[in-house]
Amino acid sequence: MNFHLASIVSAFVLAFTSYQSANAGANTFTAKPVRLGDNLISIMRQHGFSQSERESVVGSSAKLRNLFLTLDTRYLVRGSGKDIELRMFDSQTSDAFRIIKSSGKVQTIPYNPPYKINYARVEGKIYGSVLGSILGKINSNWVATRFLDAYAFDIAPRAVSRGASFWLEVEKLYDAGQFVKYGEVLKTSLNINGIAVQKKFVRNSKGGGVFFAAADLLEEKPFYAPVDYIKIASRFKPNRVHPITKRLQPHLGIDFELPVGEPVYAPRKGTVVRYGRNHAAGNYIVLLHSNGMETAYNHLHRIDKRIRQGLRVSAGERIGEVGCTGYCTRPHLHFAVKKKGRMVDPIKYIKSYPSHMEAMLEKRVAQN
After folding, report:
1. Is the separation of the CB atoms in 290 and 270 below 8 Å?
2. Which of 91, 112, 119, 288 could crosslink 70 through cysteines, CB 3.0-4.6 Å?
3. Neighbours of 160 (CB within 10 A)
């Protein structure tokens, strides 16, 4: 009798262990790399979503439709066949989504991942371009371009010599125990003209942030940054080939890449001299300032309803929102500066932070 009971117990334990093993596999996410040519539709196709299901998902959200995936990003998969969940993470914003197919029904849910954050330190020396040297140490365009953003206001031609040392610290974000993408670059150092220039990423109360060093407060530049978050997509390039028209067309400004709806601020006291909409610039505003210089803001999603010709605005006053109107491939602010009738490189005339961050940065320097 005892032998028979022991056999039954043994069989039950074996069956339960097998069930646990199978169930654990069904509930475990696997991280999949984004491959060259992948996008949301191709990824769903690879995992058995029908054409109608794919169309339903893409049509459910503009943010999901514009999800930006890069080769240094992962997505998560759980299950297979008729019951599957995908977790997708935008590589350059905080946007994330769960795409769930269960019992023949598909739903998409905006997702706020409870990230576990680890930190990685990368260091090396500059041989060739700064961008290429960083990519040689960490295979992430996001991390490399964020490093360049930190020094956009500091690097002059030939200022970084061959063999110059650099290092950076970056967040690594994990969901469900899997690495999914890099977060913000928090600290940087780059040897410029023989001096190690260090920058820290400082977040502000509005959800943005800038790379900052104490010396930045001493710069005598006439304008504050017009946005909360300094991420530069394109710089002043007099000989640029336009990404849409494919023709030689100078890029006479700087593009700050931010999500639709992010605030745009006046960088100095000024007067509205023009505003409206045209085919290329989309929604735009032009301000004239007391120093005789003009600043322009293109591709706005929305112009503040108070804006009218002749209106006087103060430094830091909100004048519009980042968008993608006119000739535009991704949401951004095209910011331009005109001096004595000629377009000039804005980097030479703007501080690395918006006006509402100045007091906080001064306080931080004083505390240190």
Report:
1. yes
2. 91
3. 20
Q: Give the integer Cα–Cα distance in Å for 113 and 96.
A: 7
Q: Is 180 exposed, middle or buried (0-12, 13-18, 19+ CB in 10 A)?
A: buried
Q: Give, in order, the Cα–Cα distances in Å from 208 to each of 41, 234, 349.
A: 31, 19, 21
Cα separation, 273 vs 67, whole angstroms? 36
Phi, psi of 139 (to 5 degrees): -80, 70
Q: Which residues contact 244 (CB under 8 A, 6 or more apart)?
A: 327, 329
Alpha-carbon distances of 204 from 6, 208, 320, 355, rounded to whole Å:
65, 6, 19, 12
- Strand 270-278 with 282-289, pairing: antiparallel
Q: Tell me: the pLDDT tens digits for 342-354? A: 999 999 999 999 9
Give the predicted TM-score (pTM) of the model. Answer: 0.84
Mind listing the pLDDT tens digit for each residue in 185-217? 999 999 998 889 999 999 987 778 999 999 999
3-state secondary structure of 171: strand
Residue where the block lists tokens 């745009």: 264
Query: Scanning the structure block, which residue is given the tokens 């990423």?
Result: 201
What is the distance between the alpha carbons of residues 285 and 262, in angstroms, rounded to a whole number?
A: 16
Please list the residues that pair with 89 across neighbouring strands.
96
Cβ burial of 52 (10 Å; 0-12, 13-18, 19+) is exposed
Residue of 312, 313, 229, 311 whose CA lies nearest to 266: 313
Poorest-pLDDT segment among 167-176, 300-309, 356-365: 356-365
Give the residue carrying structure tokens 């320097």: 365
Asked if 164 contacts 199 with a C-beta cutoff of 8 angstroms, the reply is no
pLDDT at 53 over 60: yes
Is residue 173 within 8 A of residue 181, CB to CB? The reply is yes
> Which residues on adjacent β-strands are paired with residue 197?
190
3-state SS assignment for residue 5: helix
66 contacts: CB under 8 Å, gap ≥ 6: 330
